[in-house]
Amino acid sequence: MTRFGVVTGAGQGIGAATAMLLASRGWRVGVADKSGDHVAERVAELNAAYPVEGGHEPLAFDVTDERAVGDAFAEILERHGRIHGLVNGAGVLFRSPAEETDLALWQLQLGIHLTGAMLCSRAAFPGLRDAGGAAIVNIASVGATFGLPGRIAYATAKSGVLGLTRTLAVEWGGYGIRVNAIAPGYVATEMVRSGLRSGALSEAALVRRTPLRRLAEPEEIANVIAFLLSEDASFVHGAVLKVDGGITIDGTFEG
Ligand SMILES: NC(=O)c1ccc[n+]([C@@H]2O[C@H](COP(=O)([O-])OP(=O)(O)OC[C@H]3O[C@@H](n4cnc5c(N)ncnc54)[C@H](O)[C@@H]3O)[C@@H](O)[C@H]2O)c1
What we know:
Elements lengths: L3 E5 L4 H12 L3 E6 L2 H14 L7 E4 L5 H15 L4 E4 L14 H27 L4 E6 L12 H21 L4 E8 L5 H9 L4 H7 L8 H12 L10 E4 L12
Parallel strand pairs: 1-2, 1-4, 2-3, 4-5, 5-6, 6-7
The site of nicotinamide-adenine-dinucleotide has 30 residues, from helix 1, helix 4 and helix 6.
């Protein structure tokens, strides 16, 4: 039986790498992103590399739009009945000093990372419940472990993702739905590259601060997501898996 999984934020970065890896492992993937162009490009790539009966599915919606999320998952449920995996990967990041926090940008970031993950999980629930074993992976961040100066909404949302993950795990475990989160460190995607370009982040400082002395590639994060979605993680539930090159366990003081 072909497993069907939905990956949000799959237009680029970690979500795109995850969609590709899942397809390579025989999943039929629902490629979800607010960018319709990116969705179409990714679906074409998946269908060329790993064709599957019926094709991989384009899902262009905004995870903060309750009606669009509801409509998209209602169609998925009608077509498939079952959803074996959901990856809540959509994300954005805006920087400002905390005292200058813009309310609209605060709400946007909490809306995408936190409310969006809740809306997609809630809408996917009937399909996950009926799959006879399913899993959700939420994407937190090192910002759920330590404070991220200049990114108060992002770090707050990512901390909230842990509460969402644990509560869903407790409520839905009895339905055979495993719910876990990963907490990546700095990954070489547009989210980080834009910070490097603007000077908000320094690659040399990030590398120095990370015990593995490099950024992660999106595929390294996708590997861990695919593990959590797989039977190999059949008793991993309500966990937060750090995938951060050791950045959060390094207590070094620089002189
Ligand atoms: N890159 C990192 O270092 C890093 C570290 C920790 C956690 N994360 C998290 O991993 C996830 C993926 O990040 P990335 O680095 O691949 O970022 P990215 O910017 O490369 O990709 C994010 C994707 O999310 C989509 N998206 C944004 N808002 C959306 C919305 N409202 N509805 C639907 N799709 C939306 C974008 O169109 C984009 O395709 C995010 O949750 C991010 O916070 C990233």
